[in-house]
Amino acid sequence: MGIPVVFFGCAMRGGHSVISREELRELQQSVKSILGYELASEHQTQNGIIGRENQLNPTEIHDRDWEFLEIADICVFEISNPSLGVGAEIADALAMGKPVLCLYSAQIDESSVSAYIRGKEGSDFTPSDFRYMTYTDINHALSLIEKFVDDNL
Length: 153
Description:
Blueprint: E1 5-9, H1 21-33, E2 38-41, H2 49-53, H3 58-71, E3 74-78, H4 84-95, E4 100-105, H5 115-120, E5 130-135, H6 138-152
Parallel strand pairs: 1-2, 1-3, 3-4, 4-5
């Protein structure tokens, strides 16, 4: 297999109350620059993204992101900042049979992460290639992502 293609999902419109857009951008770009993976999507953390997103209708946004999910080998979601869209993308990725890793910052209490998402790990109704994990810093997150990719590709 060649270079893994990673879909990196994170909150866009839901706000950045826990992890800032800048922190998310650093993590996302490190997946590319340090781990050397190709990113299926990297628009979520760009400056001015909300203004550009407002130029698209909801179907265009959905279909673009669906295509990003389709080409990805692995899907990684940073779920510290709650987002309905990210939840839908997680469900879509699982329905497509993609390995899914959900990460959340140790800055937050685990109980503030959606119980439905936490409950997917170990559920009889969820594929075994779903994981959610906490990370302490970017380097820790990168090591978790790298191990998940190695284990699932």
